[in-house]
Amino acid sequence: MLRRNSRGRVVAFVAGALAMFAALVLLQSARALPRDFSPYKKLNIFARVLSYVENNYVEPVDGNKLMYGAIKGMMDTLDPHSTFLPPDQYRQMKMDTQGEFGGLGIEVEVRNGWLTVVSPIEGTPAHRAGLRSGDEIREIDGQSTANLRMHEAVQAMRGPRGTRVRVLIFRPSTKSLMKLELVRDLIKVISVT
Q1: Confidence at residue 192, expressed as pLDDT on a 0 to 100 scale
Q2: Which position among 6, 32, 108, 193 has the lowest Cβ density within 10 Å, counted as fewest Cβ atoms?
Q3: Is the pLDDT score of 98 beyond 80?
Q4: Among candidates 123, 173, 116, which has minimal Cα distance to 146?
Q5: Cut 0.85: pTM above it
């Protein structure tokens, strides 16, 4: 048979009293925040809209795309320096800022709807293949670059060192097309020359 002494009852009473006091303090601090400012109310509104769109939109929707779009929209309301990157774009940004990546070694931009070489980086596969500023990359591995998003084109040209990529180049100065097969190499980005 278990017998409690008076000291054990006092300890149990004090512990119970402290737990009730802590619960009251938490309740008071939760009430101190007006309901209109509760983050849970805002999340409830967001969850309801998300559910409505997922259940009633004309076409099936991608839940991750909706979520990332909502977060991006929230960040866009702040300032030009605050942004949200989905995981794939974040990995790309980290690769860009690490100082090296597997690729062809060309700086590109979109001009007149085509992916265009700004300049090849010296000593890279693109440089060794003779790519020049102004060359238009019309295809990457058989896929047209017409109106291709910049990050998609860059992703297509990057890859592990030693892998091959086929490009179709249009050189405006000679009006000629060239099919090239380049081997990706480790590209080291030198920010200051």
Answers
A1: 59
A2: 193
A3: no
A4: 116
A5: no
Do the Cβ atoms of 165 and 157 come closer than 8 Å?
A: yes
> What are φ and ψ of residue 114, in 5° steps?
-115, 145
HSE toward the beta carbon, residue 191, CA cutoff 13 A: 5
Mean of pLDDT values over 64-82: 86
Q: What is the largest CA-CA distance in the chain?
A: 102
- Whether the CB-CB separation of 101 and 84 falls below 8 Å is answered with no
CATH code reported for the domain at 98-188: 2.30.42.10
> Whole-angstrom Cα distance, residue 60 to residue 54?
7
Taking alpha carbons only, the member of 160, 158, 173, 157 closest to residue 115 is 157
Domain boundaries, the chain: 6-32, 37-84, 98-188
Closest CA relative to residue 104, chosen from 155, 37, 58: 155
Can you read off the two tokens belonging to residue 37? 């400012």
Condensed to tens digits (0 to 9), the pLDDT of residues 110-167 reads 888 888 999 998 889 999 999 999 999 999 999 998 877 777 888 888 888 899 999 9
Tokens describing residue 13 = 């009473």
Burial class (CB in 10 A: 0-12, 13-18, 19+), 132: middle
Question: Coil, strand or helix: which one is 125?
Answer: helix
Task: State CA 189 to chain mean position distance.
Answer: 21
Question: Residue 96 — pLDDT band, cuts 50, 70, 90?
Answer: low
